[in-house]
Amino acid sequence: MQLTYHVNAPVTAEEVVDVFRSSGIKRPIDQVDRIERMLVASQLLISARDHDKLVGIARSLTDFCYCCYLSDLAVSAEYQKAGVGKSLIDKTREEIGDECSLILLSAPDAMEYYPKIGFHQAHHGFYIPRKQ
């Protein structure tokens, strides 16, 4: 395994769909055009590659000065529990800087993961779910 991490390097929607599918994250993987629009609209994209193969991704929406919403954190199944997710988050934090909060919504199965890597659980918050 020879992992490299990249900031805002090109990735294809098809590569991202493969990582999403393998990781188990719930995303519209049957709508490649929608995944493409998600990628284009992101201000910060950290990718992890093993040689040329995309194995992890952290996709964020941010203003780089106050808050950053980490919308997608996904690591291919065979690379999970090897520190790839934590490295993606660490690289995201390096890019946004110390004056910016990092915020995310966790999948139910990942609720125990985030406190282990430095996140504080918020007991306040609201959201309006998507209709599609």
Automatic annotation (TrEMBL):
SUPFAM superfamilies (alphabetical): Acyl-CoA N-acyltransferases (Nat) (SSF55729)
Keyword hit for tRNA-binding: no
Domain N-acetyltransferase: 3-132
Pfam family, one: Acetyltransf_10
Transferase as UniProt keyword: yes
Gene Ontology MF term list: acyltransferase activity, transferring groups other than amino-acyl groups
Keywords from the UniProt entry: Transferase
UniProt protein name: GNAT family N-acetyltransferase
Organism: Alkalicoccobacillus porphyridii
